């Protein structure tokens, strides 16, 4: 059955749970629309805020090649934000409103973008491991029940794969450099490991996650984290880096055990109390205001 | 104004819906679409279509029950099973 024929919530739920996909003009329950907007808007916010930690390093990047690559990456992420906000607009929330809610703190963005980037080592860890964690979530969204979102995710994942390689290249240059450069990476990893472990969210059971219920997400939080550990712990260790978690180990059945991430910190940070939340939002607000004339000129 | 963007990846491939851009006119729509769907050489061509210009057809009335013209009009599983059992039964009797 095609989604366009569905007009009641139970049939709609059965349709998406059975792997069905929904288009913009199709009927959808209000709750589904509300959750879609919330989820996709937060993704858009994260792309837009996610460029700031890296933008801070464009002028300080060690070589021209690195500056160019970082600039290209920043351009990509802003482009992702534009694509994503466009999807949100079609669901009924204008981009201007999304930006206003981002700046006022009403809507959220991902925890990792609330932290400072202290050294060039941080830039490498973000570009490699934060992007790796993000691409695990994004790949799962290729199967999202809302088809327009799933379609733009194809392009986004395609660009992210270059970002991860760029990050890995930065890290490899450092770990094969001087002892001080190696130490820069180890320090950055020590700082970023806790937020990375919080990144995929609390291990809420899939069945209790409303985003899974409506098949907006196609995997649970813990599944994503396990996938991240399975894929990246060996890659981190083969470089001689140490992961700052004494409890981290892979059980015989393939499940990773780890120290309980600090969920209070996660809640505290994403509700607007991260170390750089206020500063980065103020930066965003300033530019939004400063460039208003461009938007007005284009629309005129 | 909303423009739907379709992109073609390789010569000979179909144009696929990629996403949309919001732009006041065709020239701006082209500029945004080039940036978002073509700047890495991921498309050899783009189609930009004003959303209102799309005529969508999505109702497929079947008042004459034309399923005999489709694969799903034929359910042979039960009868095939019966026929096979019949063959086996005959072979056993011989």
Question: In words, what does this structure look like?
Answer:
The complex is a heterodimer of chains A (300) and B (94). Chain A has 300 residues and is mainly α. Chain A has twelve helices and two strands; from the N terminus they run αααααααααββααα. In chain A, helix 2 packs antiparallel against helix 3, helix 5 packs antiparallel against helix 6 and helix 5 packs across helix 9. Chain B has 94 residues and is an alpha+beta fold. In chain B, 32% of the residues lie in helices and 21% in strands. Chain B has a three-stranded antiparallel sheet with strand order 2-1-3, covered by helices on one side. In chain B, strand 1 and strand 2 form a beta hairpin. The longest helix of chain B is centred in the last third of the chain and has 17 residues. The termini of chain B are far apart. The mean pLDDT of chain B is 92. Chains A and B meet through helix 3 and helix 6 of A and strand 2 and helix 1 of B.
Q: Topology of this structure?
A:
The complex is a heterodimer of chains A (300) and B (94).
Chain A: H1 9-17, H2 30-55, H3 64-90, H4 95-104, H5 120-140, H6 147-175, H7 179-198, H8 210-213, H9 221-237, E1 249-250, E2 256-257, H10 263-273, H11 277-290, H12 292-299
Antiparallel strand pairs in A: 1-2
Chain B: E1 2-8, E2 16-22, H1 26-38, E3 45-50, H2 77-93
């Amino acid at each position: 059955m095609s989604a366009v024929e569905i007009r009641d919530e139970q049939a709609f739920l059965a349709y998406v749970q059975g792997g069905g996909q929904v288009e913009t003009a199709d009927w959808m329950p209000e709750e589904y629309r509300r959750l879609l907007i919330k989820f996709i808007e937060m993704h858009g916010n994260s792309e837009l805020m996610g460029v700031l930690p890296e933008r801070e390093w464009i002028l300080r990047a060690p070589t021209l090649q690195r500056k160019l690559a970082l600039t290209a990456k920043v351009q990509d992420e802003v482009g992702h934000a534009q694509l994503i906000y466009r999807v949100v607009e079609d669901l009924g929330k204008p981009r201007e409103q999304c930006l206003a809610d981002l700046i006022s703190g009403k809507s959220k963005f991902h925890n990792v973008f609330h932290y400072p980037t202290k050294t060039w080592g941080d830039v490498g860890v973000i570009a490699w491991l934060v992007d790796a964690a993000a691409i695990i979530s994004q790949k799962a969204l290729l199967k999202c029940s809302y088809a327009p979102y799933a379609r733009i995710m194809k392009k986004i994942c395609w660009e992210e794969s270059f970002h991860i390689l760029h990050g890995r290249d930065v890290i490899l240059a450092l770990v094969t450099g001087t002892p001080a450069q190696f130490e820069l990476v180890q320090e950055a990893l020590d700082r970023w490991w806790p937020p990375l472990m919080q990144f995929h969210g609390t291990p809420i059971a899939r069945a209790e996650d409303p985003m899974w219920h409506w098949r907006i997400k196609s995997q649970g939080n813990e599944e994503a984290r396990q996938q991240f550990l399975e894929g990246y712990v060996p890659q981190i260790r083969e470089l001689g880096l140490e992961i700052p978690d004494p409890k981290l180990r892979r059980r015989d059945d393939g499940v990773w055990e780890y120290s309980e991430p600090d969920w209070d910190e996660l809640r505290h940070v994403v509700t607007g109390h991260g170390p750089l939340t206020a500063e980065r939002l103020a930066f965003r607000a300033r530019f939004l205001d400063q460039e208003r004339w461009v938007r007005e000129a284009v629309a005129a | 104004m909303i423009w739907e963007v379709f992109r073609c990846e390789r010569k000979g491939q179909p144009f696929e819906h990629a996403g949309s851009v919001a732009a006041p006119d065709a020239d701006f729509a082209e500029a945004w679409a080039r940036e978002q769907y073509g700047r890495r050489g991921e498309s050899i061509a783009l189609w930009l279509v004003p959303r209102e210009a799309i005529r969508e057809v999505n109702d497929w009335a079947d008042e004459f029950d034309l399923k005999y013209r489709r694969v799903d009009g034929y359910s042979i599983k039960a009868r095939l099973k019966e026929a096979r059992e019949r063959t086996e039964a005959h072979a056993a009797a011989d």
